[in-house]
Records
---
Amino acid sequence: MIDPVATQHIMAAAIAGALIILFGAVYALLFALSRLQQRPGLMLWAYTAYAILIGAVWVLSTTLNLTGFWQVIAAVMVIGYFVAPRLIWHLCAGTHVSEAHTG
């Protein structure tokens, strides 16, 4: 049986969902800028944004009473947000290296 979500938790869940999207984008942006400009200080800010994202996922899963399978989905989402910018960076860097050698 699914536990109902308290009405006062709906706004917290909506804000947490927005923060997940916002700080996921901020993490990816700062990660890319750190690599592009070779500034390690930006990577610290990227990890800070990622930590806020993790906190927002925790708030979302707590306020919506997510358990079992849904907690696994949330964990996979958090891992995906961490790994995706790295994979995209390697894909883009590899693509541009091959273009530089052919042109």
---
Amino acid sequence: MIDFAKGWLGTHPHARPVVLVLYYLAIIAVLAAMYGRGNFETPEFVYAEF
């Protein structure tokens, strides 16, 4: 599958920037979905006493 993707991107040089932009937009969308409701609290286990 990876070889196919590399071969396809090699034959379509303008697709690489488009794929990267879509990748980064997907990351931003996931972060917005996770934290978009204003829930910026850290999990309790971060402050666990040792």
---
Amino acid sequence: MKNMSSSTPPPTIFHMLERHLGKKIHVILDQSYGYEGILVAVTRNPPGIWLSEGKATVLRSTIAQPIPQVVSREDRSEVFINLNSVHRIEILHD
């Protein structure tokens, strides 16, 4: 039996995000809007993330393609995103 007092607590969202610093991510804010960029910083107060090389993305889905796809991108440079408004974060692989 494992001793609960010696076990480490589960990682928080901040720890998980910090592991992906320097990687390209896609942050979905609602079903049709999000941001892509390189994760450069994670803040705890306010809870958020900073993206460099940021691009605003527009997502669309159809009956034939129900999974939302990026249909357009617009350059935004540096972007701060409050984690309270995030629906989903995807790590993008080249």
